[in-house]
From TrEMBL:
UniProt record similarity statement: In the C-terminal section; belongs to the class-I pyridoxal-phosphate-dependent aminotransferase family.
Database matches in SUPFAM superfamilies: PLP-dependent transferases (SSF53383), Winged helix' DNA-binding domain (SSF46785)
Biased composition (Polar residues): 82-91
Record PANTHER family: HTH-TYPE TRANSCRIPTIONAL REGULATORY PROTEIN GABR (PTHR46577)
CDD domains xrefs: AAT_like (cd00609), WHTH_GntR (cd07377)
Region entry Disordered, spans: 82-107
GO molecular function: DNA binding; DNA-binding transcription factor activity; pyridoxal phosphate binding
Name recorded for this polypeptide: GntR family transcriptional regulator
InterPro entries: Aminotransferase_I/II_large, HTH_trans_reg/aminotransferase, PyrdxlP-dep_Trfase, PyrdxlP-dep_Trfase_major, Tscrpt_reg_HTH_GntR, WH-like_DNA-bd_sf, WH_DNA-bd_sf
């Protein structure tokens, strides 16, 4: 007869069809050896009766097991458990420790990667005030986007459905290159544009393709944790370069880390402090890179959000000898989940990056690129930027007003002419990490500044204001004020 486990498998309250439950029960019994090879199964009729299911249910289960080779049918004789099991290796034999095989080892690359803290900057899963780095998700032009998607999916040309150019869809590269030439002073042709799945892929590719394990790279200190993690995971020696009111101190880098082979920099809005790299420093940096043969990675992640005056053009536009790799993203200007970004490559690197891109993930997704290309061509992109610029400027002013009302002693900031967050430095001996925890207990997200430093961390808090409507900002500011007032009483 059947082992009781097959009957035990049946549960009529589950959403799983009964024939699959019978199949699972029999399969498990075979794999565990309760039903032995060459065991003769009862007829489908008897089994159906025994299990209280229809004969058809058992027939379907048998059919699947026969197809997969667990059962064999002997003409005129009945159905048997296959005499040579297809996956006996799946059975878990009792193995003494000394008989156990050796665990396959991880690569040294993987071990290095596991030591890098990636969760630190992704560890706030909640989307709530005042999480920084978030655009106004709910103000995205969903209807326009939906219509574009619907139209492009209706009769997409084959070139968007099959494998395509690893660099990305040409009309999107054209739209990006036109936008960058006009708005950011980037000098490039569509051929130099490589579409990526966000800046992160660009950073990772550049680090891996242009530098070797142990090579040194300059990075602003404090700096962007996402970039730092990618560089450390690639085995690079990240050299912290202090910043002042003019941005990265190039002279410091030249003196202390002269052999660096790459510089990662956020010139238009230093992350996280928001400083603009001065023209003098830009020229100094380009000169040093030229003399020492180093690459420059320019991360221009949210230059669109400037509320006063015109932003300084991109560093890339000043580059005379093809050493700047410009990185852009649609994560801030549209949505992080769009997962599209781009690199603007010097001519000399185009072939290498195409090569690598085709090995990593072949190419970017076809229709998504076509949708974005049209959004850029038809003026939707510019309109969205203009709307968000107005909205974020208002939200910044509103946030400052409320912060001054509810926690004035914790917010020593001036209005910022750019960006999506504000940074407030803390007087010693308060710990920003502790304050973040206190805020979190009150249901408010703020980010600590100190983890962004590699050297001599300063304490501070980052408040993202762009992503949150007035009602949320009002509640979060009130709750944060209460939470912080508790600290003032008991600390330091
Ligand atoms: C400095 C910097 N660069 C780039 C990004 C965007 O990364 P991605 O394009 O991978 O979403 C961010 C997001 O927080 C950032 O702060």
């Amino acid at each position: 007869m059947l082992p009781p486990s097959v009957l035990a498998h049946l549960n009529r309250t589950l959403d799983v069809p009964l024939h699959l439950q019978v199949y699972e029960g029999l399969r498990e019994a075979i794999l565990q050896g309760t039903l032995k090879p060459s065991h003769r199964l009862p007829s489908t009729r008897a089994m159906a009766q025994h299990l209280g299911v229809s004969r058809n249910t058992v027939l379907l289960a048998f059919e699947q097991l026969l197809l997969e080779g667990y059962l064999e049918s002997r003409v005129g004789d009945g159905t048997y458990v296959t005499h040579t099991l297809p996956d006996t290796s799946l059975q878990k034999p009792e193995v003494k420790p000394e008989q156990q095989g050796r665990q396959p080892a991880l690569s040294r690359r993987a071990q290095k990667l596991l030591q890098v803290q990636v969760t630190q900057y992704l560890s706030q899963p909640e989307y709530r005030a005042f999480r920084s780095g978030m655009p106004a998700l709910k103000d995205f032009p969903f209807e326009e986007w939906r219509k574009l998607h619907a139209r492009h999916w209706k009769t997409p040309p084959v070139q968007l459905l099959a494998y395509g150019d690893p660099r990305g869809y040409l009309p999107l590269r054209e739209a990006i290159s036109e936008y960058l030439n006009a708005s950011r002073g980037v000098r490039c042709t569509p051929d130099q544009v490589l579409i990526t799945s966000g800046s992160q892929q660009g950073l990772e590719l550049a680090a891996r393709l242009l530098l070797d394990d142990g090579d040194s790279l300059w990075m602003e200190d404090p700096g962007y944790l996402g970039a730092r993690a990618a560089f450390q995971a690639s085995g690079l020696n990240v050299c912290p370069i202090p910043i002042d009111q003019e941005g990265m101190q190039v002279q410091h880098g030249a003196e202390h880390h002269p052999h660096a082979r790459m510089v990662y920099v956020t010139p238009s809005h230093q992350y996280p402090l928001g400083i603009t790299l001065s023209l003098t420093r830009r020229l100094e940096l380009l000169k040093w890179a030229r003399q020492s043969g180093a690459w420059i990675l320019e991360d221009d992640y949210n230059s669109e959000y400037r509320y006063e005056g015109r932003p300084l053009n991109a560093l890339q536009g000043l580059d005379q000898d093809g050493r700047v790799i410009y990185i852009g993203t649609f994560s801030k200007v549209l949505l992080p989940a769009v997962r599209l970004g781009y690199l603007v490559l010097p001519e000399s690197l185009i072939d290498l990056f195409i090569h690598a891109r085709s090995l990593v993930d072949r190419m970017p997704p076809g229709v998504s690129q076509a949708v974005l290309a049209e959004f850029m061509e038809n003026g939707g992109f510019e309109r969205h930027i203009r709307r968000m610029r107005g909205l974020y400027a208002e939200r910044q002013a509103f946030f400052i007003e409320l912060a001054q009302k509810h926690f004035p002693e914790w917010l020593q900031v001036q209005p910022s002419p750019a960006g999506m967050h504000l940074v407030s430095h803390l007087a010693e001996p308060f710990s920003d990490v502790q304050l973040v925890e206190e805020a979190s207990r009150a249901g408010v997200t703020v980010r600590a500044l100190s983890p962004s430093y590699l050297h001599s961390p300063e304490q501070g808090l980052l408040f993202g204001y762009a992503g949150y409507p007035e009602d949320e900002t009002i509640l979060a500011a009130r709750d944060l004020g209460r939470a912080f007032s508790r600290i003032r009483i008991s600390d330091p």
